[in-house]
TrEMBL record, chain A:
One of its GO terms (molecular function) is structural molecule activity. GO terms for cellular component: ESCRT II complex. The keyword DNA repair does not apply. This is ESCRT-II complex vps25 subunit. Keywords: Protein transport, Transport. GO terms for biological process: protein transport to vacuole involved in ubiquitin-dependent protein catabolic process via the multivesicular body sorting pathway. Belongs to the VPS25 family. The keyword Chaperone does not apply.
Automatic annotation (TrEMBL), chain B:
This is Winged helix DNA-binding domain-containing protein. InterPro entries: ESCRT-2_cplx_Snf8 (IPR016689), Snf8/Vps36 (IPR040608), WH-like_DNA-bd_sf (IPR036388), WH_DNA-bd_sf (IPR036390). Signal peptide: none annotated. Belongs to the SNF8 family. GO terms for molecular function: DNA binding. It comes from the Eukaryota. It comes from Polyporus arcularius HHB13444. The lineage of its organism: Eukaryota, Fungi, Dikarya, Basidiomycota, Agaricomycotina.
Length: 193, 251
């Protein structure tokens, strides 16, 4: 049996390890499991980036209709990632700041940081700058559901908040209370920061 | 009575004279011998250099030719691969020392980069395949013999690189200093037969082991050494074990 990469219908290239049957089992040897977790983390984040997915739930492991099905299941070798294994992977991702539990205080659903909050902050600031939104007040809603396509479209609010927090720290943004919720004002800041 | 040296005081002179003559003669003779030896050596050297330089490409490219050359060198007591320092002009002439070191470096490269998934154990054929891929050469250019030699050159690094025979003509290269017991070698051999998969049942059926023995060997290989991965979704046995170093990875 040769382990090869596989291109899914959505155009994502699954690595050859995804064709290895034991990759879908939680390993009792901690060193081996570390390798398995690292590979799953990389796979999940790159797939999320590919399909612009933010949410991953433990239930996705049992749902064949899930948008994660191509990754969490390999029908060519009849293997699927077990929910308990996925939960362990998610917990390690949260610990490594590659995801956050959302809603908080539960451990079965996460938001994925396929861009780190710092990277999102930069994307956000660059977008505000290039679209001439510096110094104006914008609602969160206007940012994540803009009338023209933008890289921030569909960005979950918790991640947006984290990104804005990064900008606030470097004095490039300011949170403003607006009538229908929260808003933000982007500041010109110091060049090069 | 005739005396060799003559008589009287002149005998001393004569004796010294003949001593000198003998010394001269002996000097001449040994000088001639040394010269001859030098000439022969020079001739041998140039013949060998000529041979090496005319066949250099073939030696480097053709495994069978390289092997024959290495055997010839071994017969006359010279190691052409002893390295640039130790082997002097041999290695220089052939550039084989460098070739061998280069191969060694690539072996290390492959072993280290695959270590996290195979636990530091790689099958010889797989190693050769990956090294060949790294060098961008065809399948038959690098032989098992070359790999074994290169691994020998890695010895001074004491990184624990070692070729182990798992039986059935299969060899594995171990890149972590760790002892394998006899039962584990059998586990690896059985995994080789089945594309990397091995199970308690297979060990019992094919090697006549008791379940207990199979279980112990597998759990040592799995838990203690991390040389195999567990698969708890096996269709046939429920639980099976996979030896990544015996699986074929295309990437």
């Amino acid at each position: 049996m040769a382990l090869t990469t596989h291109t899914t219908p959505s155009g994502f290239v699954l690595p050859s390890i995804h064709a290895a049957k034991p990759f879908f089992t939680q390993q009792p040897n901690p060193a081996t499991q570390k390798t398995v977790t690292e590979n799953w983390t990389r796979l999940i984040l790159s797939y999320a980036r590919h399909k612009k997915l933010f949410n991953l739930r433990v239930e996705d492991a049992t749902d064949d209709k899930s948008e994660w099905d191509e990754v969490l299941r390999n029908p060519r070798i009849q293997r699927r990632l077990r929910p308990s294994h996925l939960a362990a992977i998610l917990s390690s991702m949260v610990a490594a700041n590659q995801a956050m539990y959302e809603p908080p205080n539960q451990t079965s659903s996460v938001l994925l940081f396929w861009r780190s909050p710092e990277e999102w902050a930069q994307v956000l600031y660059d977008w505000a700058n290039s679209t001439g939104h510096l110094n104006t007040i914008m609602t969160f809603y206007e940012i994540v559901e803009p009338p023209v396509p933008s890289p921030l479209e569909g960005l979950p609010l918790p991640i947006l908040r984290k990104a804005i927090a990064v900008l606030t720290k470097s004095a490039r943004a300011q949170i403003i209370a607006v009538a229908d919720g929260e808003g933000v004002r982007f500041l010109p800041g110091v060049p090069g920061r | 009575m005739h005396r060799l040296g003559g008589v009287g005081i002149s005998a001393f002179d004569r004796q010294q004279q003949s001593k000198r003559s003998f010394a001269e003669l002996s000097n001449e003779i040994s000088q001639a011998q040394v010269d001859l030896l030098h000439a022969q050596l020079a001739q041998f050297r140039s013949a060998l250099a000529h041979y090496a330089s005319t066949h250099r490409e073939r030696i480097r490219q053709e495994p069978s030719f390289r092997h024959a050359f290495q055997q010839m060198c071994t017969t006359i007591g010279v190691d052409p691969l002893a390295g640039p320092r130790k082997g002097g002009w041999w290695a220089e002439m052939l550039n084989l020392g460098d070739w061998q070191y280069e191969l060694g470096v690539q072996i290390v490269d492959v072993c280290v980069s695959t270590r996290e998934r195979n636990g530091g154990l790689i099958e010889m054929g797989e190693l050769i395949r990956l090294v060949s891929k790294l060098r961008g050469v065809g399948g038959d250019v690098i032989t098992e013999d070359d790999v074994m030699r290169s691994i020998k050159t890695l010895k001074p690094l004491s990184a624990g690189y070692e070729v182990i025979d798992v039986g059935g003509g299969k060899k594995m290269v171990r890149s972590v200093p760790r002892e394998l017991d006899a039962d584990q070698a059998v586990v690896l051999a059985v995994a080789q037969e089945d594309g990397g998969r091995v199970s308690e049942q297979a060990l019992v059926a094919r090697r006549g082991w008791t379940e207990e023995r199979a279980r112990t060997a597998l759990s040592n290989t799995l838990l203690r050494d991390g040389l195999c991965w567990l698969d708890d979704q096996d269709e046939e046995y429920g639980v099976s074990y996979w030896v990544p170093s015996a699986m074929r990875w295309d990437e």
